[in-house]
User: Fold these one by one.
Assistant:
Number 1:
Amino acid sequence: MTDAPNEKMPRSFTHIETWVFDLDNTLYPHHVNLWQQVDVRIRDFVAQYLNVPKDEAFKIQKDYYRRYGTTMRGMMTEHGLRADDFLAYVHEIDHSPLEPNPEMGAAIEKLPGRKLILTNGSRAHAGKVLERLGIGSHFEDVFDIVAAELEPKPARQTYLKFLKLHGVDPSKAAMFEDLARNLVTPHDLGMTTVLVVPDGTKNVVREDWELEGRDAAYVDHITDDLTGFLAAIRASN
């Protein structure tokens, strides 16, 4: 399955001048489970920082993630965490499961206009992911959690900061994301939205709520094959 738009009339791509991509579980398949490594390190950090057992840390981690957008933001708000310490620790992972994806690189390169990344992760982590995938040269810049002044998606002000900093007209932009809730504001601002979902052939480690929202009004398109989806856009434009 390449594209499964909702029953409603989805926004098209004929007018798009800027292509905005989330990073983790969007530019690489969900089943790589790279983020699972980060997830484990977040749990360990929370356990050490709060001096609680790991099972309790896991509950706190997931609660903050859902309520605040990231566990880090919850820890900052609830416990006065310094973000630099957190970001350095949780992104120290093995990126080797990622493999070069020249086909995706070619599909991204052929899209007309600018390409940008908007991620709740760090710039350093994004750089390592893009290097492993071999697609970094196709992107103009990375807007990370530090550029967002540590306010993660789905906070509205984060998207507004991103749009202002890069001079992006949301009515001429598309947003690709693996979390439906992170498409609410982009769609509200006028962006064409694409939800990237697992292809269903391999096990993925996700919370149930992370896989919700496929039928939401703010999701214009759904794909489980980003490379094929991007190639089809170029072919139809």
Number 2:
Amino acid sequence: MTAAIQQLLDIMAQLRNPQGGCPWDLEQTYQTMIPCVLEESYEVVEALKTEDFSALQEELGDLLLQVVFLSQLAKEDQYFDFNTVVETLSNKLIHRHPHVFGDKSADSAAEALTNWESKKQQERLNKQQTSLLDDVPHALPALLRAEKLQKRAKKLDFATQSVEQNLEQAEQQLAAIKSAVAANQDHAAKPLAELLFSVSNLCRQLGLQAESLLRDENSRFEQQAREFESYSSNKHFK
């Protein structure tokens, strides 16, 4: 282990030390760390999207802190420690890359992905996960989870509509929304949810990521709203 990593682990241990540690760090639990993990993950994504590598260096450190912090909690509860996290990851990478560390071959990214998925399927069976859907995390953002569920369902030959069929389905759902709004807005929730899922599926079929598309559209909307806000303020004070 490098001196820098050991120093980081020592710092974290001291922050959690009841004798002279940090009151805030001492109050944290696995559950209270969830918002921190999510926030730091999204800040890494933001740095990647903007290609701000100075920010990326800092945000990766903040994300690493979440790993170190949770590992310290687990060490205190005698579940595992940072070293076993690293060892588990190393073993997983070796196991899932038989074309690099074993006797398999992969001449393309597609073949490498096939090897990866084959190993993942073996791991699911070892964990007694009998469904391809078992390890799709419920905590994922809804659009991203929809995409993952749709990808897994495709492997099962379930709900395999074409792009044209999906577009037709979306049009039917939009019509149902219009009818529900005209009759009783309380009935619009189900067709709205179905339309969102169909749009996510359509994005996947077209090789696009709904989560990324919506994030980009949020940025465009925010920019337009800021420009309008600035224009309105200037107009008001003239």
Number 3:
Amino acid sequence: MTLKDTDQLDDLKEFLIDWYGKYDSSYGVPTDELPSDLPTALHELYAFAGRWKDGTDEHLENSPEIFQQQDCLYSVERLKRAGDRITFLEENQANWTCQAEAGNDNSPVYCDEGMLWDDQAEGHLLVNESLYHFLKSFCLQEVVFGCKHLYVAEGQMDQIRSLFNTPLEDVWLNGYYTGLKEAGPTHAFYRCGDVLVMARYGDLWLGSNGDDLAAVLKNADMSPIKLRRIKPD
């Protein structure tokens, strides 16, 4: 399935249930525990998956563990207020954070990532006009990094496609995340069975929770591509 670039999360929810093969209402945060001024997109994500565990028990209590693999979606209890904005996500080493506007269902996303390399940067800048779009890029990124089997590849996307006997299915294309829009899209995702391929900032990642990826790598001509296994290490 291809996720739509529209103001809804139904297709993301459908993808997550299909990918993990399970869902229970306990994975979400009860609506009476959610701040009333959360933008709709965040409210919906927390209500659906704000306490979805990944089985490792390596995170804080009540954390949405499936969304804390690379960058970190805060648990509802960790949400922070800064004026009229809510800080809801941080980079894995806490180098930058993302904010949304409290009470604004059409909130964009602000990020202070630019302060890492720009001495003139001042705090959080608008980086994504759509919170819905941002969350789809983020959540799919975390799904890939949370895979039991994970590789980073040196090669071209066409070479990755040639590894598979069937065409890769588009999942999310032209995804924007924390970079300024004029720099262009940063994320794209493709699927074949239980294998997810992610193009992220020019790097290619292959992730799987089952046996499909091992079978692909065993049977394909790997000579044009260099793979480095990340997990299991």
